[in-house]
Amino acid sequence: MEEGIDYSWPIIPKYKVCEHDKYGVRKNHYVLFKERAHSGFDITADYGTEVKSMAKGVVICAGFDGTTTEGFDRFNMGYGNRVEILNDDGKRCVYGHLSEIFVKEGDRVDNTTIIGKTGCSGGSRVPHLHIEIRKHNTEETGLDYTINPLDILPKIDFTEIKLEFTQEPYDVLWRKMASEVDPWGFSEDDVWYRDDAFYIK
Ligand SMILES: [Zn+2]
C-alpha cells in the first residue's frame, strides 16, 4: 500500500453548495423524507460533465447499483450507475449517479482518467456526483466507514461559488434544496423526476 497519494477533484465544483450536499447527518433526506447519514459529498453538476478519478488505483466495480443500506427501495435505488475504485493508498472511492461509465473492473486509473459522466441515476433527482471515500476496501457505507471527502481533497472556498444551477427540468427542485429552509418540506410530488435510472446511455 502506498501512503500519501495525490487526491484531486473529480469535477470542478461549479454550483453553490448547500447543507444537503455535505457529509454528515441530513435532517430530511429529499428522497427518503427522513433523517439519514450522508456518507459522501454531493457536487451538483450539469448533466454529462466528465468525471475523473480522484486518485490512482484500480476499478473494482462499474455498473448499476440499485440497493441502499435500507435494502432495495423502488423510490430510492441507491447509487445508480456507479464506479468504485480501490486507490493505491487502500481507500475505496465511490462515484455515484453517473449517466455514462467509461471504465470496467480491473482497469488501472489515475487522476487524469475520465471514468464517466455525471447524471441523475439511482436515488437522485438533480444531476450531481456523489463522491464517497471509504477508509478501507469495504462494501460497508455509513459514517463509521467513510471520511469526509473535504478532509482529503484540495481546499476550495465554497463561499466564493455563487452560481445557481439552471438546467431544466431540475432547477426548481435544486432551488428548494439550496434554500435555507430547514427541513425542506419536500413531498413526493417535488421529487418525481428521473430519466435514466435503469440504464447507462
Ligand atoms: Zn450523496
Q: How would you characterize this protein structure?
A:
The chain is mainly beta and 201 residues long. It has a single domain, classed as Glucose Permease (Domain IIA) (Distorted Sandwich), CATH 2.70.70. 4% of the residues lie in helices and 28% in strands. Strands 3, 4, 5, 6, 7, 8, 9, 10 and 11 form a nine-stranded antiparallel beta sheet that branches. It has a two-stranded antiparallel ribbon with strand order 1-2. It is globular and about 45 Å long. The site of zinc ion has 4 residues, from loops.
In the CATH hierarchy, the third-tier topology is known as Glucose Permease (Domain IIA)
Bound compounds, each kind once, are: zinc ion
- Helix and strand run: EEEEEEEEEEEH
Gross morphology is globular
Mind telling me the CATH class?
Mainly Beta
Could you say what the CATH architecture is?
A: Distorted Sandwich
